[in-house]
Amino acid sequence: MARVLKDVKRTPNRRAIPRSKQSTAFPSLAAAKRGRTKAWKQDFHRRLLAWYAVHRRDLPWRATSDPYAIWVSEIMLQQTQVATVIPYFARFLSAFPDVRALAEAREQDVLRLWEGLGYYRRARQMHKAARIIAEEHQGNFPREFDHVRKLPGIGRYTAAAIVSIAFDTPAAILEANTARLFARLSAFRDDTAGPEGRRVLWQFAEELLPDRDAGTFNQALMELGSLVCSPRAPQCEDCPVHMLCPTFQGGLQESIPAPKAKPQMEAVREASVVVWRRSKVLVRKREAGERWAGMWDFPRFPLTARRQPAVDLELAAKIEELVGIVAEPGDLITTIKHGVTRFRITLECYAAQYVSTKRRRPRGDESLMWLDLDQLAEVPLSTSARKLSRLLLP
Ligand code: SF4
Predict the structure, then answer these.
(1) Is residue 307 part of a domain?
(2) Are residues 314 and 236 in the same domain?
(3) According to the model, what pLDDT value does residue 360 have?
(4) Cβ(67) to ligand 1 under 6 A?
(5) How far apart are CA 296 and CA 281, in angstroms?
(6) Ligand 1, residues 192, 248, 252, 256: which to mutate, most atoms within 8 A of Cβ?
(7) Structural domains of the chain, count
(8) Distance between alpha carbon 168 and the CA centroid of its chain, in Å?
(9) Which pLDDT does position 86 carry in this prediction?
(10) What CATH number is given to the structural domain containing 360?
């Protein structure tokens, strides 16, 4: 198990290194680059790997060199915390232990295991990629960077992470943790997400990459970025490379990388309606292009009316428009507040009674289902729909 990191001061502190070793002026990018000599890189590698050997977390995907498992972990970890991913990773690997099992699974079952992780496109893309691997690579995960990169949902970073960790291919990485770490180590003060920032930081990553054991090196970089070189209040005094870091020497941890503008949040109001037909409720599969595409949900739409009877009229009209069913709106069940990207959503959840079917669906259309409450457990629901479904249980 990883040793618990010491409690550290939460503010940058130049006193951590002897004054004689501190630079008096913050170096320019060019000066910082000149300073990265061969000896600097060797020192950096040695210090980083020694630190990683002691502090690395014992994460389930680190116990394997199976490219499939590493791929699953990398996709799950995109935009998602390690602690959240751990149980999902275990359940996913247990249900789909290899590429073929994933390729043969129904999309619905893949999404059910992904439910709650968000960004469901990741799961759909993985499923598609598994089918391509099964068909075009006989079920063997490709070893070549270029072949991996061509798979749906796999970009430059993910391809490099997989081939370096699984096959020890020297491929440089750049993701959120390493972008921040590299910006600080290279004294890069501009936007790390813009085209110039990406170019400079990818170049830095390539420069730093060792010829051997790239997988361990890449994991060590990400671990340092995640555990020590955090976005706010990095723990520089515990950082194994602080004597090599111009940002620490300049006391500029708060301004590198350049702070991003916070997205403007927009408040929206929506309704979700549980339409009852005797003991069954209506669910609708969310279409491509909608939020949570491929997941099931109760009929849901924007709501503008504020008072009765206007609310009931709007609910009835929108249910009919969305699913072709005439329903009589009833009571408010609950209100759920949640955020999606830049939207702060207030979701009013209503009950309604089925009256009649206004619009017949074409043959083969499987976008609507009437389910008993216990059947809801078997389908992938949006997070808010899952919350609402729990309130319906006796
Ligand atoms: S010294 Fe501080 S800013 Fe520099 S790499 Fe280490 S944690 Fe990051």
Answers:
(1) yes
(2) no
(3) 87
(4) no
(5) 12
(6) 248
(7) 2
(8) 24
(9) 98
(10) 3.90.79.10
pLDDT digit string, tens, across residues 274-289: 999 999 999 999 999 9
**Ligand 1 atom at minimal distance to the Cα of residue 242:** 1
The residues assigned a catalytic role are 74
The domain that holds 180 is classified in CATH as 1.10.340.30
Together in a domain, 52 and 121: yes
Q: Do 245 and 270 belong to one domain?
A: no
Residue 208 shares a structural domain with residue 293? no
- Final residue in a domain of this structure, among 196, 219, 249: 249
> What phi and psi values does residue 338 have, to the nearest 5 degrees?
-155, 165
Q: What is the pLDDT of residues 37-69, one digit of tens each?
A: 888 999 999 999 999 999 999 999 999 999 999
Host domain of residue 282? 266-392
Asked if residue 216 and residue 184 are part of one domain, the reply reads: yes
Task: Tell how far the Cα of 253 is from the centroid of ligand 1, in angstroms.
Answer: 8
Whole-prediction pTM value? 0.86
Whether residue 243 sits in one domain with residue 271: no
- Same domain, yes or no, for 71 and 210? yes
| Percentage of the chain exceeding pLDDT 70 | 91
Residue nearest to atom 1 of ligand 1 (CA): 242
Per-residue tokens: 21: 């070793």
Task: Indicate if ligand 1 lies below 6 Å from the C-beta of 197.
Answer: no
Which ligand 1 atom minimizes the distance to the CA of 234?
7
Q: Of the candidates 249, 284, 312, which is a domain's last residue?
A: 249
The residue to mutate among 10, 48, 229, having the most atoms of ligand 1 within 8 angstroms of its beta carbon, is 229
Same domain, residue pair 41 and 171: yes
Which of 183, 178, 145 lies closest to 164 in space, CA to CA? Answer: 145
